[in-house]
Amino acid sequence: MTTVTTRRSDRRVSPVFLGIVAVTAVTGWATWTGFAAQPGVAVFLFVTAAWIVSLCLHEYAHARTALHGGDITVGAKGYLTLNPLKYTHAVLSIVLPVIFVIMGGIGLPGGAVFIERGRIQGRWKHSLVSAAGPLTNVVFALWCTAPFWLDALDGVPADFRFALAFLALLQVTAAILNFLPVPGLDGYGVIEPWLSYGVRRQVEPFAPFGLLFVFALLMVPSVNGVFFDAIYAVLDALGVGDVERYCGEDLYRFWQGSSDFCAAVS
User: Fold this and answer.
1) What is the secondary structure of 31-91 as a DSSP string?
2) Distance CA 84, CA 53 (A)
3) What's the number of CA atoms in the CB half-sphere (13 Å) around residue 10?
4) Could you tell me if residue 110 is left (phi over 0), alpha (psi between -120 and 50 degrees) or otherwise beta?
5) Which residues are catalytic?
6) Is the whole model's pTM more than 0.85, yes or no?
């Protein structure tokens, strides 16, 4: 790995990120204890804040891997501080994914850090830089679902369990979407270094539209069904069942009113 030098201030964790972590901790506590008068509000804030934390960690993983791959400019750009305001496209990387979670309960992948690929030598390093982000979502999904697949749910309040299930759904969707080998997504970035120069030149103009293409496909009922069947299969394998997923999303969308079914199983 390349030896790199960055200023201490380039690596200092941003107060903005620490504030988001604090919101996650406080609202997670409120969800666990039932402190909030409206549990749905606490779940909404907890899941949203935790989702933003995961987005920051996703981009940090890209930047940190690029740093060790040879791009020493990521520190000066503020990418190592975990501050989402330093990202190249803060709206695309933070605001839009949050809006998609609110509207459709899907983990939208965002692209935020600009990596100077010319500074990175070697195909494997380029692939690893692209893979680092979605692998972070995989780790986050495993963390969220640990109580389920470790059979350690005794004593875990129902609302907190539901919130973790919905957060896990977001992480799994983000990981799967990001790993699709579609231009503009991380999955294509993993395989791009191994493609011929001619193929890369032909594909390059379509990169800005890759995510739009994916979401257009997801509008097709048959494709949407296959996609979410895959999501649910992964969650089932991790011990998260239909009830947890459904009630997690139901609680998250508190403005629609909680279902009687979820209130009964809480």
Assistant:
1) HHHT-SSSHHHHHHHHHHHHHHHHHHHHHHHHHHHHHHHT-TTTTTTTGGGT-GGGSTTHI
2) 9
3) 14
4) beta
5) 59
6) yes
Please state at what angle helix 221-237 crosses helix 210-218, rounded to 10 degrees. 90
- Sign (positive or negative) of CA dihedral 18, 22, 25, 31: negative
Q: How many CB atoms lie within 10 A of CB 265?
A: 13
The tens digit of pLDDT for each residue in 86-122 reads 886 666 667 777 887 887 778 876 667 889 999 999 9
| 150-188 residue pLDDT tens | 999 998 999 999 999 999 999 999 999 999 999 989 999
Q: Where are the domains of the chain?
A: 15-256
AA letter at 25:
A
Please return the burial class of 160, using the count of CB atoms within 10 Å of its CB with bins 0-12, 13-18 and 19+: buried
Question: Residue 98 contacts by C-beta under 8 Å, 6 or more apart in sequence?
Answer: 48, 51, 52
Look at 81-90, 193-202, 223-232 and tell me which has the smallest mean pLDDT.
Answer: 81-90
